[in-house]
Amino acid sequence: MITMKDIVREGHPSLTEVADEVDIPLNESDKQLIEDMLMFLKNSQDEEIAEKYQLRAGVGLAAPQLGLNKRLVAVHFEDPNGKHYSYGLVNPKIISHSVEKSYLSTGEGCLSVDRPVEGYVPRHARVTVKAFDKEGNPLKLRLKGYAAVVFQHEIDHLNGIMFYDHINQEQPFAVPENATPVE
Ligand SMILES: OCN(O)CCCc1ccccc1
Ligand code: NI
């Protein structure tokens, strides 16, 4: 099972590199990897298992966070409106996005960052994501609100971008232009 020791931290090259697309259909090991990533997220959100294995709760995980430069992402969370998202995404791509921006009012964090980094992270308010699932079936997801934030955070990891790269260094809490807060 994946635990915190498998998650690389700031300074590891895979967090600032562009990851490679994976071949579809997935080979058995990439299929197992995406299943293990999803299981990590579920475990990290289970009070007993997280306590037992000292897991930090995560709503998403990207393969580069395991030191693997593959375009694989897992997300597992319920948004504030109670909508459930649980996906293993292969080669996810943002194919369109709103002009309008948004930002998580609490700021963001990252399992690969062992320190709080304050400030608003400007994101596209709405994104359309195309990807494949682990069986090679095409997916097209239209996302807004919290889900849009999470998916952008994860896809950024595939492009070597960390959430704090988006924060306004001069004024971290300056409200981004034309942006609405996501609670
Ligand atoms: O890359 C996953 N990650 O480091 C876990 C935290 C994910 C996350 C946290 C806040 C807002 C969006 C996404
Ligand atoms: Ni992250």
Automatic annotation (TrEMBL):
InterPro entries: Peptide_deformylase, Peptide_deformylase_sf. GO terms for biological process: translation. One of its GO terms (molecular function) is peptide deformylase activity. Fe cation binds at C110, H153, H157. Its cofactor is Fe(2+). Removes the formyl group from the N-terminal Met of newly synthesized proteins. Requires at least a dipeptide for an efficient rate of reaction. N-terminal L-methionine is a prerequisite for activity but the enzyme has broad specificity at other positions. This is Peptide deformylase. It comes from Virgibacillus massiliensis.
